[in-house]
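Researcher: Next sequence.
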Amino acid sequence: MPQRFLTAAAIAIVALISTEFSTSAQEKEKASPQKIAIRAGRLIDGKSEAPIANALILIEGDHIVSVTTAAAAPSGIQLIDLSKATVLPGFSDAHTHLLLNGDITSEDYDAQLLKQSIPYRAILSARNARIALDHGFTSMRDLETEGAMYADVDIKTAIASGEVPGPRMQVATRAMTPTGMYPLLGYSWELQVPKGVQYVDGVDGARKAVREQVMYGADWIKYYSDRRYHFEPDGVLHSMVNFTDEEAKALVDETHRLGKKVAAHAIGSDGIAAALRAGVDTIEHGDGLTDALIDEIAKKGVFWVPTITVGAYVAPGRGGNWTRMVDLEKAAFQKALKRNVKIALGTDAGGFDWKEINQAKEFEYYANYGMTPMQAIRSGTVVPAELLGWSDKLGTIESGKWADLVAVSGDPLKDITELQRVKFVMKAGSVYKNEIH
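Model: Next structure:
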């Protein structure tokens, strides 16, 4: 049976056997009243410079109707009392891997591709989607399936259809590298082992691969711009560039021609420079950003998704240059912040176990690296909404936007770690979590 049918079947199994989350989003919407009012003690709406006290949010269906400071809610509709809480827009994570569950060493990665079937990994991805939603992430961009083919399209479809709970998704399907430049590597040539990516060679091959992935449901195209990160006497983090300029430009040109966007894994300065030459829309990781590259990324309006959480998590286990790379990225982050680079929150969840770290840890890193708490919050709400092309639909709490809201008990402007303790989650007007007392 083809892999996509197996994967779809696995997701269907999740919907059937789940007991803890057996009520689907569609059933919740049918059971919920058509209109809801939320009383927010403090509202961080994503637009205002300061919180709004005692705000009233009116919701109809899956959209926000109005945000006021009305003294009382209209009669005859359900009132959710969050008067002792801080309400914020739902969070967005711009870099995840739902089909991966920890990737410190090559052995961690290889075991998942060699010992877990794609249907089984799809089942775990449904679990991971629920974890993300429970932590307040109502939207995510998933940047490759790591050998699980197009299973991310299936999980996105299952969530959108209300079969399983999870964030709104944009997906990249299979990342691209030239032949032989991404695991699984090092096995006997006599064995056909799984590939973590799609191998792509030549300009024509690049265009064909883009067309194929878009045909199967890719919202984004992701490619690996570099590998083999190392420091040279100049103190700069260098790397080996994977694609020729002609190949990379063909990837980007074909993607843009088809109305999609491109994310480039680019860690070393050489890989970042090559990706910028190709015209990508986002730089992922970017540890080796130099002053000149920061100026270029700012000038071109390219988004930077730093994924600090995963770097700090894997560095001790990987050793080598990884600890130094974490420190280098902190310095680059502080420079980029001063030059108004568009920094979008992305965690690389899946690179760490979804059950082990709350994705909202990334907010804490941004605040520790120099952002104000409000800037950090916007990096995970307003900025990724723009990156995803959904600024008219999410990122702020205002009339006409999707009713995607989260709430915490404390004040995240005083303690950013409050965002790791989300007590209330609403997506599209349906309440998925409410632990506010």
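Model: The first helix runs from residue 3 to 17. Residues 30 and 430 are 10 Å apart (CA to CA).
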